[in-house]
Design goal:
Number of strands: 7
Radius of gyration: 25 Å
Structural class: alpha+beta
Number of helices: 2
Mean pLDDT: 81
Strand content: 35-45%
Strand order of the largest sheet: 1-7-4-5
Distance between the termini: 26 Å
Order of helices and strands: HHEEEEEEE
CATH class of the largest domain: Mainly Beta
Largest sheet: 4 strands, antiparallel
Number of domains: 2
Shape: elongated
């Protein structure tokens, strides 16, 4: 919406520049001063800088791993932002390949971790929102003797306070 305002101001400045160039230049300088003043009076908190969030602010649901081309795998699922006040802009997830003695192994403690890879995921997830994802995962080539089981862990989460956020 603010682009329409900027476009309207640009048209007014151009039209004024043809008829009264000194007035157009004065208006342009005034708008620049106003923009600079707004930029410098905006607090650091309101400028929406990236912050490190707790990994508990993110939940990854319904991960499915499927074989892909040349030894890679395709991970699909849903990333849920559980934060009330921060949007998530990126996170890193460690995908681990576990070699389990049988498909009926009840827990990963019975399995041996044989490979892992960390994948950065870049998404915009609004506060209390979710987004579906698809990521290519390429672990080190290993031989799994039993049953292959995947595990994952969120390592770090980056977020920012959205501009629409209001403190109570």
């Amino acid at each position: 919406m603010h682009w329409f305002l900027f476009a309207g101001l640009a048209v007014i400045l151009i039209a004024t520049a043809f008829r009264v160039p000194k007035l157009a230049f004065s208006m342009f300088c005034g708008l620049l001063a106003l923009a600079a003043g707004l930029y410098y009076t905006t607090g650091e908190e309101e400028q929406s800088h990236l912050v490190e969030l707790e990994s508990s602010m993110v939940e990854i649901r319904d991960i499915k791993m499927a074989s892909a081309y040349a030894g890679a795998f395709r991970a699909t699922g849903v990333i849920v932002n559980k934060s009330d006040e921060f949007d998530i802009s990126g996170l890193s997830v460690r995908f681990s390949v576990n070699d389990c003695p049988s498909e009926t192994a009840l827990s990963l403690e019975e399995c041996k971790n044989v490979s892992h890879t960390t994948e950065p995921l870049q998404f915009h997830i609004p506060a209390n929102g979710s987004v579906a994802f698809e990521q290519s995962v390429l672990p080190r080539k290993i031989k799994v003797e039993g049953s292959r089981r995947w595990s994952f862990k969120v390592l770090n989460v980056e977020g920012r306070r959205p501009l629409r956020f209001e403190k109570e």
